[in-house]
C-alpha cells in the first residue's frame, strides 16, 4: 500500500493564519511561520499555504512570507492564491515553494494547466477544486468559494488529469469547517476516475475521519486545518492511530 500523507493547511489572510466554517466566519489561528515549523517538527508530510483572498483582492501571494515559511521547514510546501501566469509560478518556486496550487485561473483558462506543467513539470502543479453539491449535482466554485460556476466537478477533475495537472486538491464546501467528516463519496468517485493523486479537504473533525477518507474515500492524502491549529489532534497521535488501523503513513 502506498504511504498516505497528512497535510496541514494554512489559510492566510493579511499575513495571519485563519480558519472559518463553510468558507466564511474566519477567526485567527496564529502566525503561519510558527505553525509551519511546529507541523514540520511534528511529522506532517507536507504543508499547503493558501492566500485565501489573493484572487478576490487581485493581488499576488506574498512571496516574502513564502520565503520565511520555506526557511522554517524541511518538508514539501505547496502555495496557492492569486496565481495565474507561468511567471507567478516562477516567483513562488524561486521563493522556496515546492509546488503551486491554482484554482480560479485554471477554470478561467484551462490551457494554463498545460503551459505550467510543460514549463515546470506536472509534479509541481496542484489544481484545487472547491466543490459544492447543488440539487444532487457537484459544481465547481472559484474565487475562494465565492463564485459558483456551471462546471461539473467530476468532468473538470478528468480534464485536469488529461491536461497534465499533477495532483487535485478537492475541497468539499459543504463539509468545510463542519467537523462532520470528509466528503468520502465524491472523493472516492474522483480518485477512482483519475491516474493522479487526490488530496481530500474539508470536514475533518476526529481521528476516525482520516481512516474513513483513506479507506472509503480512497484519498491519497488528507488535508485539515482547525483540528491541527487548535491542537485537537496531534499529528504524531494521528499517524500512530492510522498505523494501528493498517493504513501506511510516514512516521
In words, what does this structure look like?
The protein is an alpha/beta fold and 251 residues long. It has one domain (5-244): Aldolase class I (TIM Barrel, Alpha-Beta Barrel), CATH 3.20.20.70. It contains ten helices and twelve strands. The protein has helices at 32-42, 63-72, 86-95, 104-108, 111-120, 153-163, 184-193, 207-215, 226-229, 235-244; strands at 5-13, 16-21, 24-30, 47-51, 77-80, 99-102, 125-134, 137-142, 147-152, 167-172, 198-201, 221-224. Helix 1 runs parallel beside helix 2. It is globular, with a radius of gyration of 16 Å.
Brief summary:
Helices cover 36% and strands 28% of the residues. It has 251 residues and is of the alpha/beta class. Strand 5 (77-80), helix 3 and strand 6 form a beta-alpha-beta unit.
